[in-house]
Amino acid sequence: MEPSCLFGKRGEVRGVPVSYTRFAIYYVPPEGALADFGAVWLGWDCIAGCDAVQLDVPGLEDVTKAPRKYGFHGTLKPPFRLADGTDLTGLTAATADMARACAPGHSDGLVLTVLGRFLALTPVGDMNGIARLASTCVKALDSFRAPPTEAELMRRRKARLSHRQDTLLERWGYPYVMEEFRFHLTLTGRLRVEQIDLWTDVVGAHLPELPKPFTLDQIALVGERPEGRFELIERYTLLG
User: Fold this and answer.
1) Regarding beta strands 214-216 and 230-237, do their DSSP bridges make them parallel or antiparallel, or are they unpaired?
2) Residue 15 gets which letter from DSSP?
3) What is the pLDDT of residues 122-172, one digit of tens each?
4) H-run or E-run covering 67
């Protein structure tokens, strides 16, 4: 897979240093067949920080528009702005410390799944280790997260959150964490009901062999560039 690098080396846009607007902790598949597929499926390679030549599939650009800017990933700590008094240097050091203490998460494998009205890869089998890891990421790095604005809270609440989800939103800045968390690697935006079977078949025809078992043994600190796309800043191996 040959990405088309439009933005120069990571952290720069045409040679100008980037000031990231938000950060997140992702699982980004290691370089290989699955990561390559994710880049050409979405049209954005978050590992290289480059546009990728998207697969020549009619309608693919439209159905992947929503997840494209995030790159192919599974969220562990949702995007956040840095809190006052914190900086990227401190965040990278804290993430490294956390990774050294965290044990990997395991499941029986990844499968293609319909989640509501979008398609994603999700783990099967015992997911307690992955859920534990995600909760640790949310909690351990929370001091670096600026609280959500009232506008952000209102936007989230338009999704008709449950009482528990609203409580999680207030406490952690996102409603789908802790027991509401479900690990997934997003492949499409919201589809019309009549599109779901078609795109399930299309994805299945292009997917590489999926890992069985699936081991989440590294995490990635990613940053949101000024134009809104996320890229890898640094990977961390889980050593706990």
Assistant:
1) unpaired
2) T
3) 999 999 999 999 999 999 999 999 999 999 999 999 989 999 999 999 999
4) helix 65-68
